[in-house]
Amino acid sequence: MASLKRSEPEPRWPSAVALLAAAGLHYTLPSYLTPGPDWVMLVIVGVVVVMSVTAHAMNHDRLAKSGGFVANALITISLVTAVVLLVHGLPSKRVEPRQLLVAALAIWSSNVLVFASWYWRLDAGGPGERESRESHTKGAFLFPQMAIDPVLRDELGCKYWRPGFIDYLFVAFNTSTAFSPTDVPVMSRWAKAIMMVQSSISLSTLAILAARAINIL
Predict the structure, then answer these.
(1) N or C: fewer beta carbons within 10 Å in the chain?
(2) What is the mean pLDDT of the chain?
(3) In angstroms, what CA-CA distances link 192 with 41, 142, 179?
(4) Tens-digit pLDDT profile for residues 94-148
(5) What element of type H or E holds 33?
(6) What phi, psi does 4 have (nearest 5°)?
């Protein structure tokens, strides 16, 4: 990854796009997995994200940060609710195979996007705090760039390196796929707790698919 200078702020749009995509995936779920009208979550999250991005552009960082947390929390709650309803509906065979596949794919993908946003917002105080430091040397995750000798980091062009949203998306993707952070060790307890929740959602989704497939056979 290219070197980042201290004065170069991290763009906020990747996280905003991730939240909107997660809300869009929620909209594709079958109606019985979304309490209330299907479009409600998409509209609410869309409004909150737009307000948050606008607030950040107007330098109202506290308001922008609060809006981001609200949107993240809403999608997380809807995600957990969808998993619970999916598990509850499986014994009654309410779920058609095609619907189950679409729902599982939407839940799994949303799971990756939502928790990538959580890691991005919470690690080392969030993007604003990370930008205030010359380089990223402490946080909840031990990225490979952080373990490089300072002198070698300078030679490799990583002196001002800080993790961006794609780095946290990579961590979240591996957590949902391999049920572990792979090459990025977890250092803090809060991150370990959140990762367990993410892995549980992913494992539950895959287990539901396997159970249904066996039942069909």
Answers:
(1) C
(2) 83
(3) 28, 13, 12
(4) 667 777 788 888 999 999 999 999 999 999 888 888 887 777 878 899 888 887 8
(5) none
(6) -115, 130
Q: Where are the alpha helices (DSSP H) in the chain?
A: 13-27, 40-57, 61-89, 97-122, 127-131, 150-155, 165-178, 189-216
Determine the Cα–Cα distance for residues 38 and 183; give it in Å rounded to an integer.
Answer: 38
Q: Which two tokens stand for residue 9?
A: 């702020």
Could you give the CA distance from residue 215 to residue 134 in angstroms, rounded to a whole number?
55
Instruction: Tell me: pLDDT of 91 over 70.
Output: no
Angle at 156 (CA atoms; ends 150, 159), nearest 5 degrees: 45
Contacts of 104 (CB under 8 A, 6+ apart): 86, 205, 206, 208, 209
Condensed to tens digits (0 to 9), the pLDDT of residues 178-201 reads 877 778 889 899 999 999 999 999
Phi then psi for residue 133, to 5 deg, are -105, 155
User: What are the phi and psi torsion angles at 21 (to 5°)?
Assistant: -65, -40
